[in-house]
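Structure tokens please, single chain.
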Amino acid sequence: MGKKNTEKEAEESVVKETTETQNETVQKELSAEEKLAELNDKYLRLYADFENFRKRMSRERVDLIKFASEETFKQIIPVLDDFERAFKSINTITDINVLKQGEELIFNKFKNILTQSGLQEMKSVGEVFDSEIHDAVTNIPAPSEKMKGKVIEEIEKGYYLNGKVIRHAKVVVGQ
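Here you go.
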């Protein structure tokens, strides 16, 4: 009987160890599933946050493009008011010099606003023709040897906006 008890105890011990191993495995699986669920939840939240960020940035970009010129227009509106006042007073002004001075003041005010906003006139006459910034309207014989390949006349001014060409100068080039 002593042998049977020992065998029985050994079987019980093996069953107990197997049960404990199975319980540990189940707990490890539950723990892994919990970690997986936790990581999945973090991933979903992070993805949702990123999508919200992307949508917000897209809306802000659209608004920025839509209202980018707002400050410039706020500065130009007073010039528009000046033009309206000048048009109203045209019929009552008898001295043409006063009218010319008024036009000159409005022009200078408008030009200063554009300059402050980053607009610059392109200097072309006497410069070497550059197809990156000039559009040649025509070529004429150069008045002197020095003027060959250079801009002789400017038909339409070119402009830079913050260093970028926004309108090419239309020029006459000497041959």
